[in-house]
Amino acid sequence: MKLTKETVTLIIFIIATTLLSTAQSVVTTGLAGIMSDFHVSSTTAQWVYSSFLLVLGVMIPTSAFISRRFKIKTIIVSCLGLFFIGSLLAYVAPNIGVLIFARVIQAIGSGILLPITQIVILKIIPVEKWQVFMGLFGFIIGIAPALAPTVGGVIIDSVGWRAIFLLFAIATFVLILISIVGVKFEFETSDYSLDFASLILCVIACVGIMLGFSNIAGNGFDLVYVILPIVIGFIALVIFSKRQFSIKYPLLDLRILKHKYFFFGTLFSAILYFTMCGLNVIMPLFVQNVAYHSATESGLVLLPATIIMIVFNFVGPILASRIGVRKVLIASCIFSIVGYLVMMTYDVNSSINYMILTQVLRAIGAGLGLMPAVTWTISVVSGNVEDATAINNTVRQIIGAIGSAIAVVLMAVFAGGNVDHNAISVTAFGETSLVMAILAVVMLVIVILFVHDNVEVEEI
Question: What transmembrane ranges does the database entry give (predicted)?
Fold first, then answer.
């Protein structure tokens, strides 16, 4: 690849996004130290992590408007600037409230930059090379958050959790300087107006739905913490959706969902993400509460599968560009179905090695499917990558939060309310795995009926 102004811009965006994406999970290994320093409970400390995820989901829908309205140099410098301020504030935070606020500022920058980087890739790279470059992007931003807790743990054990944020601030400051000098390629912008009512409704919808479902695990179906936020969120979502069809400058052009292939492609990736997020919650629950292994062993069960999934995030798009996305997604579904069915064979005596090996099957399915599906879905409406990217990412973020909650609820319900070291909980885990397998079958049906290799691009 020649170092043109386009490729230099693309490289800077990918490096910046990689750095910002590590902030999502790097603090998880520092929560114990944060609890000790600020004398707070684990429930309070976890908001250092949860607040970041919540704001991340809220900011993604704004990416379509931002990419149309502002120059990309302004966008990257502003996002990095916010992340820099958040990192410095976190480094000097005198209490847990300031630290959480600092994480919110970090997440605003990260939540905008992630989908904007995808838009930059899709704008610069020719359509026929989208799969390969999106696969590379998926691999890079996948490996960084996966390794972040391990690297962060080493740093935290050596010099404390504050050092993480100081390193973020230094690296971000350097990237700001590089971006000011190196980003010379620009897209055409317009005087696209921001509809504040849509923005407010979108924030209420995203926060309500994600917060409500995220609270299920800790609060059950509590009226205040769960049901009320979800109801308010869905009401706001309905009003928001209707408004987008009636205003001149919608925050998200939802007419794109009328495109049959875009709709079902988004549905496929959403279901896949639902099962992935659900698995990430129920698997550690089974390993520790049912099979009675340690938390460290629980992490070891998922680590090889996570690495395999990240590798296939890159392999999947390459295969899709060579043999067609339809065949790759069918293979993805088959691996997923087999993986979840094999999980039904787990019992209280299942060894760590057996679980590691069998989790690889599911991980191959997830890795093969996600990036090829996302790229193909956006390609069928390639004339409107801004809205397509924002909608696809937002739907997956919300569905992921729902998936994590629903999986825990299902397993608890099947277990009679208490997941423990007994046969009933083993059966409950198997039944929850069967639900995941059924969802994978639904994905397979979607691929067979609605995913084709040569779909004509339509302007919506």
Answer: 47-67, 74-94, 100-121, 133-156, 162-183, 195-217, 223-240, 261-287, 299-321, 328-346, 352-378, 398-417, 423-451
Distance CA 220, CA 432 (A): 18
Using N-to-C axis directions, what is the helix angle for 325-343 and 423-450, rounded to 10°? 170
Q: 64-68, 260-264, 396-400: which has the highest mean pLDDT?
A: 260-264
Residues 6+ apart with CB under 8 A from 274: 399, 400, 402, 403, 406, 439
pLDDT value, residue 43: 66
Which single residue is written with the structure tokens 């908001």?
47
Q: Annotate 197-258 with DSSP letters as a single string.
A: HHHHHHHHHHHHHHHHHHTHHHHTT-IIIIIHHHHHHHHHHHHHHHHHTTSSS-SS-GGGGG
Sign of CA dihedral 369, 370, 373, 376: negative
**Which pLDDT band holds residue 426 (cuts at 50, 70, 90)?**
very high
DSSP labels, 92-112: H-SSHHHHHHHHHHHHHHHHH
- What is the length of the chain? 460
pLDDT value of residue 279: 87
Tens of pLDDT, residues 413-424 = 898 877 888 889
Average pLDDT over residues 110-130: 89
Residue 271 near residue 442 (C-beta atoms within 8 A): yes
CA gap 293, 348 in Å, rounded = 10
| 61 closest CA partner among 191, 210, 165 | 210
